[in-house]
Amino acid sequence: MPLAVRSNPDLVLDDPSFRHYWFPLARADALADGPVARTLLGVELVLWSSAPGIVSAAPDRCPHRDARLSTGWIETCGLVCPYHGWAFGEDGTPSRIPQLPDGSSYPPKATLDTVRAAERYGWVWVCLDEPLHAIPEIPEFDLDGWRTVHEPESAWACTALHLIDNNIDPAHIAYVHRESFGTPERPEVPLPSVTRSPDGLLLGYDIEVEGRHGEPGTTLRSTRNRLANPFLMLNRITYPDGVVHLMVKACTPETAETTRQLQFVLRSDIEADRPADDIRAFDAQVWDEDKAVLEHCWTDYRLDLTENVHLKTDRPSIEYRRWVRRIVEAGHPVAPGDEAS
């Protein structure tokens, strides 16, 4: 069964080049109570887990009478369609068709067209076409001395490209986040360093920001950001006291115009220093502030640099757009390139 895609050829993320990336689509614990529906690059999928650590993904459509499999449930025989009780194993092959006598052979077209799925870092990852790169490594996830703060999934009515662009732009902090950690009284930002490498786009800057609620004065955030791929950001923030806050953010394109964000934080301190609930509450405020702007941006993310006005402080966005354009022109994932000055 061909994958059903809702697309607009004028939008960047409708280009098939991005189908070769691994994308996290859900927190793994979201599958604990049964199958869930998710959309990736316009393809509507069902995700399910038949056993701990085993995840599967397929088009969210039963080949029998078109029911959405995500409205079904899990039994020992596998994913069960709610319409006629057909069941499918982890590889998509039918394990039960109640309307056929025991011992019957099943129609070949009854098998689901599964796509690649894997569980890692507490997320369910999916790749629609042949993956050209592995799921990125995050060494700190398994190291002693680091704690993990898992955050809720969130839906964004903006492109994944705009959301990543926003997160690599220090200049917006003073205005968009004036109620949380920015202030228009200090709109100046340092010129970020940008390096194109085989491991992704590497960005760096040190910026003075407002202290969080209850913390007087300002603090210096030393930010070293790695875009492991155009949709996965590993943002390492080091504070003056030496605490490291590693934000792992995935901006998964549901469609060319909408995004599902997944995020967790790795920290080098302990719960008593900064409770996990405080971190989640602060990030929720920051996301709401970003949404207030991003969800009203135009959805045509421009790769032609002549179509937007740029400043020197926009260097991360410029290099990011160049990278995305290279991917589209190549027709498959490519690294950002050689080092940039």
Q: Would you kindly provide a written description of the structure presented here, covering whatever features stand out?
A:
With 341 residues, this protein is an alpha+beta fold. It folds into two domains: 18-127, 3-layer Sandwich (Rieske Iron-sulfur Protein); 139-330, Alpha-Beta Complex (Naphthalene 1,2-dioxygenase Alpha Subunit, Chain A, domain 1). Helices cover 14% and strands 31% of the residues. It has four helices and 18 strands. It has helices spanning 160-167, 173-176, 276-294, 315-330, and strands at residues 23-27, 36-40, 43-51, 54-59, 73-75, 78-80, 87-88, 94-96, 116-120, 123-127, 147-150, 154-156, 193-197, 200-210, 218-229, 232-238, 244-253, 259-267. The strands form four sheets. Strands 11, 12, 13, 14, 15, 16, 17 and 18 form an eight-stranded antiparallel β-sheet that branches. Strands 5-6-7-8 form a four-stranded antiparallel β-sheet, with no helix packed on it. A hairpin with a 2-residue loop joins strand 2 and strand 3 (43-51). It starts with 22 loop residues before the first strand and ends in an 11-residue tail after the last helix. One of its GO terms (molecular function) is monooxygenase activity. This is Phenylpropionate dioxygenase-like ring-hydroxylating dioxygenase large terminal subunit. It comes from Ilumatobacter fluminis. Keywords: 2Fe-2S, Dioxygenase, Iron, Iron-sulfur, Metal-binding, Oxidoreductase. Pfam families: Rieske, VanA_C.
Helical run tally: 4
Which structural class do you get from the secondary structure elements?
alpha+beta
Mean pLDDT: 93
Distance between the termini: 48 Å
Spatial extent as radius of gyration: 22 Å
**Shape summary:** globular
- Superfamily (CATH H level) name of the largest domain: Naphthalene 1,2-dioxygenase Alpha Subunit, Chain A, domain 1
Strand residue content: 25-35%
CATH third-tier fold name of the largest domain: Naphthalene 1,2-dioxygenase Alpha Subunit, Chain A, domain 1
Q: Give the topology string: H per helix, E per strand.
A: EEEEEEEEEEEEHHEEEEEEHH
